[in-house]
TrEMBL record, chains A, B:
<dbReference type="InterPro" id="IPR004113">
    <property type="entry name" value="FAD-bd_oxidored_4_C"/>
</dbReference>
<dbReference type="GO" id="GO:0071949">
    <property type="term" value="F:FAD binding"/>
</dbReference>
<comment type="similarity">
    <text>Belongs to the FAD-binding oxidoreductase/transferase type 4 family.</text>
</comment>
<keyword id="KW-0274">FAD</keyword>
<dbReference type="InterPro" id="IPR016171">
    <property type="entry name" value="Vanillyl_alc_oxidase_C-sub2"/>
</dbReference>
<dbReference type="InterPro" id="IPR016166">
    <property type="entry name" value="FAD-bd_PCMH"/>
</dbReference>
<dbReference type="Pfam" id="PF02913">
    <property type="entry name" value="FAD-oxidase_C"/>
</dbReference>
<dbReference type="InterPro" id="IPR016164">
    <property type="entry name" value="FAD-linked_Oxase-like_C"/>
</dbReference>
<dbReference type="InterPro" id="IPR051914">
    <property type="entry name" value="FAD-linked_OxidoTrans_Type4"/>
</dbReference>
<feature type="domain" description="FAD-binding PCMH-type">
    <location>
        <begin position="36"/>
        <end position="215"/>
    </location>
</feature>
<dbReference type="Pfam" id="PF01565">
    <property type="entry name" value="FAD_binding_4"/>
</dbReference>
<protein>
    <submittedName>
        <fullName>FAD-binding protein</fullName>
    </submittedName>
</protein>
<keyword id="KW-0560">Oxidoreductase</keyword>
<keyword id="KW-0285">Flavoprotein</keyword>
<dbReference type="InterPro" id="IPR036318">
    <property type="entry name" value="FAD-bd_PCMH-like_sf"/>
</dbReference>
<dbReference type="InterPro" id="IPR006094">
    <property type="entry name" value="Oxid_FAD_bind_N"/>
</dbReference>
<dbReference type="InterPro" id="IPR016169">
    <property type="entry name" value="FAD-bd_PCMH_sub2"/>
</dbReference>
Length: 469, 469
């Protein structure tokens, strides 16, 4: 419980109307995309870095858990207040402070919505590549905390590759700046990259400096349908082996296509076993040639059909298919165990075969799609929530999936992070020495473990007193 | 002093002939490119990670300072054994373990020479962009520890951008793996990037996993001569503002050209005030167009002459000029205070003006050249070593240079690191809170401060008992 005195201080720092202990407000900030729910004691919305610093100083003094929150679109519970305490919503800090066209650099506050930022820079002929599926809602602060990815990462890299500086508040309330607006800088440790993907456990992000690129002149999208999943998986490797790196290289397996046929009216050859969406970008005159090279490379791999978009509208038609996947899956009415494993690209065919075996073994449909170009597949294990046996099997299937992934030199998460969802499996991937090293670091920087406690590390995770069933 | 018992144990770990306390060997490992000199007590050359781990465990137990060393080409003293103790040479661990053409990933040991590695991957049609000037000698382990840069970084990024995984030994002797061979991965803290550029103070690198790119099909080099320095500096900004990012964008000021005329027989218009070497790369048919666009963008900025290379030999002629700079400067017989400041690109003209003022104020020639494309200029303050007044003035000029750089939003080091050379100035750039945060991190991970002590942080730096005058 948080004392009335502390609540009063929080009101002085944020303004009364930005601090709430009302049940309705607390419920609003109790869940995220995992649909798990933990009730905080108080929700605060600071206006600026100074307020964040004062709040952290207070929380450090009173040992109050603090959970920074962007838009709550995370898939692993990064924003969930698993030990109660305080949710710190960053939505008031939502200004684009600068877009410097001379230096291709932008400065933003953490609450800026990713998609809004992309539109703002594209209007100036610039380009911010990271494009998580949630970009219309997700915040840049959340993207940085989780190191978000997206389809374009195969060519352009992930969020971290664009973050060149930060202003943060530490767990003890200090405001520090890391990196800067220069393209290079090697003075002191690279805290910028350490904070990216640290899932809000090391610092509260209050300002972000992002590198931008010139916007590619044009792009060309194609949908390629394969007779079997193996051909599509091999095509991914074949394209890269040819030293072509498309802007996106998205994959849908046969079950994904079935699901799209059933619930989204997709028309596609009956024999379709998988499909790829491939997009190339760059100079206009260059794209036709590259498209042709790709089609040549993959033609012997069981291609049933290819649709090359010649207009923006035709391209949008293809992307509509990709965007329809998640809503389609939802319509099946099943519980979805959504994992984002990543393997070296060349291991994709073998990974897909192993996933099929897991599906057979546990008698559960598994729907695979996602960023095949960088080996990052969204594996959706589907189970009937009302069927305890299926739900238990799904848990076993998740563990089997992680073990198979790691056996192929992969990682349990390409872009979603660990949070609370993968924390119990952490020691499958990281050695005890690695975990100890990370915990030593966390402990030194957050001695009272008040900043986003209960995330990443399995021990911290054991008691989750706040969970609402 | 290190006891005979410890020396015996080191000999058991490395083999007798790879452990030496002989004065001649110790002198060999007492200096680097800073030409400062500190004598170690012992020099060891471990064969593998297991040996490194055993050495670190021993050193941790006996509180012996350990100084990992690549090829000793650093400009800030990163490899210097400033507190005596042990130099750990990594040259035996020099195997390229794997070049995976399907996944565009390589695995190497830290002692592999950068240039050798580049040749090996280029023979397979692949590309490892970071190209520090020392690449024929420098090791990849040293490059990672210092986060080396080079001319191509303007388009391709620095060493860190290619390191996706590491095996390291911690100061307490644990072997841990970070990252991996996948293109994405967000499980746990990003220790990979934390170790890159940490100047060997947090971990000894024993294996490196590097991302590769397809090798660009072709490149085109041009030399553009300007009547004045301001035009060249403005040209850099103008090119980027036009959303063209050349593969390299190197700058030479008038004094650099004078020096090349005097000592390297460079022929260039009398009125030349500065020059740029611009290289574009990519698809062959694309390059002429891009070259033309660049020449159009900069034509009004005082261009006296441009030479566009049409053959490999003509391109090499241009690069010969760039490579002649350092030897030319040496021929002047003056002490060179070589700094590698970096400012936002658009601030280059102003930065150059401020450097000219500093040159006037302290009555010392300052020669500027380097990676203007990313705002990273090598500033060489020249002084007569025999003239105490000049040498003192040079020290003042260095500080004035750093202050001017920081005033323009820059950093004291784009690629050389802090080491011992910039440690006294650290608090000009980083706040006391930032420094404290970094030291807290260092202390938690290296409680006895045995791994490369005396680097980066000014306090540690105060007594340098080993320095040989």
């Amino acid at each position: 419980m948080i004392s009335e005195k502390v609540i009063q201080e929080l009101k002085e720092i944020c303004g009364s109307k930005f601090v709430s202990c009302e049940k309705t407000d607390r419920v609003l900030y109790s869940y995220d995309a995992t649909r798990k729910q933990f009730l905080p004691d108080v929700v605060v919305h600071p206006a600026d870095a100074q307020a964040v610093s004062r709040i952290m100083t207070l929380a450090h003094h009173h040992r109050i858990p603090v959970y920074p929150r962007g838009s709550g679109t995370g898939f692993t519970g990064g924003a969930l207040p698993v030990h109660g305490g305080m949710v710190m919503g960053m939505s008031r800090m939502n200004r684009i402070l600068d877009i410097d066209q001379e230096n291709l650099v932008a400065v933003v506050e953490p609450g800026v919505v990713t998609g809004d930022f992309q539109k703002a820079v594209e209007a100036l002929g610039l380009f911010y590549p990271p494009d998580p599926a949630s970009l219309k809602v997700s915040s840049l602060g959340g993207n940085v905390a989780e190191c978000a990815g997206g389809p374009r990462c195969v060519k352009y890299g992930v969020t971290k590759d664009y973050v060149i500086g930060l202003e943060v508040v530490t767990p003890t309330g200090d405001r520090i700046e890391t990196g800067g607006t220069t393209m290079k800088g090697v003075v002191g440790y690279d805290l910028t990259k350490l904070f990216c993907g640290s899932e809000g456990t090391l610092a509260v992000i209050t300002k972000i400096i992002l590198k931008l690129l010139p916007k590619p002149q044009a792009k060309k999208t194609m949908l390629v349908v394969f007779d079997a999943i193996d051909g599509a998986a091999k095509a991914v490797s074949a394209i890269i082996r040819e030293k072509i790196i498309p802007a996106t290289l998205e994959f849908m397996d046969g079950r994904t296509l079935d699901c799209l046929r059933q619930t989204a009216g997709l028309s596609m050859p009956e024999a379709a076993g998988a499909a790829l969406i491939i997009e190339v970008d760059g100079d206009r005159e260059f794209l036709d040639k590259q498209t042709q090279r790709i089609l040549t490379v993959i033609e012997s791999l069981g291609v049933l059909e290819n649709r090359v978009a010649n207009t923006f509208e035709e391209s949008e038609e293809i992307w509509k298919i990709r965007r329809a996947i998640s809503p389609s899956l939802k319509k099946l009415g099943l519980e979805k165990f959504n994992e984002d494993i990543c393997v070296p690209r060349s291991r994709l065919p073998e990974m897909i075969r192993r996933i099929e075996k897991i599906s057979d073994q546990y008698n559960l449909p598994i729907v695979n799609f996602g960023h095949a170009g960088d080996g990052n597949i969204h594996v959706n294990i589907m189970a009937d929530k009302a069927d305890a046996k299926q739900m238990a099997n799904a848990e076993h299937a998740v563990e089997a999936l992680f073990r198979a992934t790691l056996a192929l030199g992969g990682t349990m998460s390409g872009e979603h992070g660990v949070g609370i969802m993968k924390a119990p499996y952490l020691s499958l991937e990281l050695s005890s020495q690695s975990i100890l090293y990370m915990k030593t670091l966390k402990k030194a920087l957050d001695p009272h473990n008040i900043l986003n406690p209960g995330k990443i590390f399995p021990d911290d995770d054991a008691p989750l007193p706040g969970e609402m069933k």
